[in-house]
Design goal:
The protein is built from 4 helices and no strands. The protein is an all-alpha fold. The chain has 2 domains: about 1-35; about 40-85. The protein has helices at about 5-30, 35-65, 70-85, 90-95.
């Protein structure tokens, strides 16, 4: 039985593509599953982020409480003055490209 070279190339290409597709599907399914250890590590990481955020807020409050009244007033005034100059509207490039997003 004699096979045509083009026919053999098609079969090899077809089997190769099927193998690649099946491998990608199997990898995608593994990513969706999380083991108990991974979930626990994820929860621990989120808890650490929350603790860090709380510590930062408490540190800011402590810093404000350590200042005398005049300094707190000056800090408040400068904070208001600084926020006046920071614009809440989008940058020029963002506004320019907004219709394309």
């Amino acid at each position: 039985m004699k096979f045509n070279l083009a026919f053999i190339k098609k079969i090899v290409l077809l089997t190769g593509s099927l193998l690649l597709i099946s491998a990608s599907f199997s990898m995608a399914q593994d990513d969706q599953k999380m083991t108990k250890k991974q979930k626990k590590a994820q929860e621990k990481k989120e808890q650490q982020k929350q603790d860090a955020r709380k510590a930062e807020i408490e540190g800011r409050k402590r810093h404000m409480n350590l200042q005398d009244k005049e300094t707190r007033k000056r800090m408040k005034k400068n904070r208001k003055k600084g926020s006046k100059y920071v614009s809440s509207k989008p940058r020029f490039i963002d506004r320019l490209l907004a219709p394309f997003k």
